[in-house]
Amino acid sequence: MTETVYVKAEYREKLRVKHLAMEPSLQGKTVSFRLDNQSIKIRLPAFSPGAKWSEDLEAEADTWETKTGNILSVYIYAVHIAIENLTFAIPTTAAQHGSVNMSLFSPAEREILDKRSDDLYLLARRALDRWIGIVRWTTGMALADVDNRPVSASLDGGRLFNLDDGGKFYSPRIPRTVKVLGRTTLTPQTWQAITDALANDEIPPIWNEYFASSQRRVEAIDLRAGVIDMAIAAEATIKQYPHVSKTKRDKKMSVILDKWDQFGFPPAGPWLSDLKTLNQVRNYIMHRGDEKQVDPALCKRSLAAVKNLIGLLT
Questions:
Q1: Rounded Cα–Cα distance for residues 295 and 239 (Å)
Q2: Pick from 66, 65, 21, 64: which is nearest to 45 by CA?
Q3: What CA–CA distances, in Å, run from 305 to 262, 276, 302, 310?
């Protein structure tokens, strides 16, 4: 029977993100929170001046002053995620080896570790989604997201590290990687807001998530779904507005929009008519399967209208 030992361990991923940059002072900054009773740590990357671009590049100087050469913005290609305070029972020889050696595990042990690694990977992805949701909320950058062109699933391969000696003792047999584009710039102020929101277990308003989703869908030319998400964002914003009676807010959206002033909502601009059109087109899609009016121009006007609505009521 194989002799085993319990080791304190950590699961690490490096996942690609898009539409994110940061001020240089934020390189290497970390934020910790809990998800599903597990300790999560997310760390921003650091860049190496003069490093050539490669698939493994985590960050790159993006904007700098011409005269001084001072770097103003760093493009983020990937962020690090660690799931901490884990314990694994592994063969004593594997614990003493200090690096991955698959021959030190039996087939049954590899199967167990693969299953545990897969579960931790899914938790890491959910943790990154949680973090990015807070980033979208605090920065207003709806397009910030996990990169949507996965090649496998993780640049680090979901490695398990033995904290007693710092070496990795296991990596799943199926690699995982995710690739990238784009950005919004994190500042020390927004980073503090993100940290505070996670520490206080704050949840972004539902309208924020649907509005962000609508923008991502429109960017991906999924216009029908984008219109539906926009309409949901608008409805959620209106229905949760506390300064109009619930009786009035419980009316149909078409009635609310037609009687906007009579119901006591704040004065709206000409964009209110675009909200009426958005609601009507959404109903055509949902109730009749009719999407003839869905086009990029409608989406552009509707996005602007919903943004104005959110600014007015929140």
A1: 27
A2: 21
A3: 20, 10, 5, 9
Instruction: Give the whole-angstrom CA distance, residue 280 versus residue 129.
Output: 32
- Topology classification of domain 206-313: Four Helix Bundle (Hemerythrin (Met), subunit A) (1.20.120)
227-268 tens-digit pLDDT: 999 999 999 999 999 999 999 999 999 999 999 999 999 999
Residues of the chain with CATH 1.20.120: 206-313
Confidence at residue 155, expressed as pLDDT on a 0 to 100 scale:
63
Q: In the predicted model, is pLDDT for residue 41 greater than 50?
A: yes
192 half-sphere exposure, CB direction, 13 A CA radius: 4
CA gyration radius, the chain: 24
- Kindly state the tokens that stand for 173: 């047999």
User: CB-hemisphere CA count at 13 Å for 86?
Assistant: 22
Are 42 and 127 contacting, i.e. CB atoms less than 8 angstroms apart? yes
The burial class, CB within 10 Å (0-12 / 13-18 / 19+), for 131 is buried
pLDDT tens digits, residue range 109-130?
988 898 898 899 889 988 998 9
Lowest-pLDDT choice from 69-73, 146-150, 217-221, 262-266:
146-150
- Quick one: tokens of 6? 């319990």
Contact 171, 202 (CB under 8 A): no
